[in-house]
Amino acid sequence: MPELPEMEAWRRQLDEPVHAFPIAKAGPAHVATLKTFDPPLAALEGRRLAGARRRAKRLYFPTEDGELVLLVHLMTAGRLKYLLAGEKGPKTPAFALEFEGGARLVLTEAGSKKRAGVWLLTPEALEDEFAHLGPEALGLGADALVEICATESRRLHALLRDQRVIAGIGRAWANEILHHAKLSPYALSRDLDREEVERLAQAIDDELERGLELRERGANDAKTYRVHNKLNEPCYVCGTPIARVDFEEHTIYYCPECQTGGRVLKDRRLSRLLR
Ligand SMILES: [Zn+2]
Known about the structure:
The protein is built from ten helices and eleven strands. By secondary structure, the chain is of the alpha+beta class. It binds zinc ion (ZN).
């Protein structure tokens, strides 16, 4: 699933184009993709979007008049694309907006499962949608993280991924961040000392900034990640082969030399724990 760096790179790309022209036609939308019916999509027609905004891993597009907001959640396979007037696009997008002059914003989703979603909301309803989210990961800072680590006793990989605690990080960037911070994915947040929390806070910013910069230049996953999905490839710091372990429903990648003092982490799949 795209995480903060990917979504923020898309947001920056879409911010100006979506604002350039008023909406001529809202839709069509796949029945599984559009999650709301009131207000109707047609309420967008004739209005101009203020630009593209982001909260956690979601993009949203407020109308310039401040009355409506289009919220988009891409999930794993959804992609948003801005097509210039006359530019060829997908035959049956999951969702489309057409702007005056002919440019289009289209949402496509690979595979047959429709998981991505589009909501047309009032600003108040959007606030409710975001109410459960923790602070944004980028720029969180050591003081806020000290507080989080003191109140939450969780394994670091799970803590970083919990959107209610810190918003914007998923499994890929959790792998990258923990490696950069030289911390074990299984370490308990409450056991970290001040220096370790500071290192983790710095690693969150360093890695998300690095990812954002690469994604803005169009880098693919293989070029962006250094630890995630790199099983048996040499660690970029020490050369030790990257290891992999299953934890709950996730696969964690880590360097046994840099992160766990040479120890190999034990499989902690949920299915195994429940057996
Ligand atoms: Zn290493």
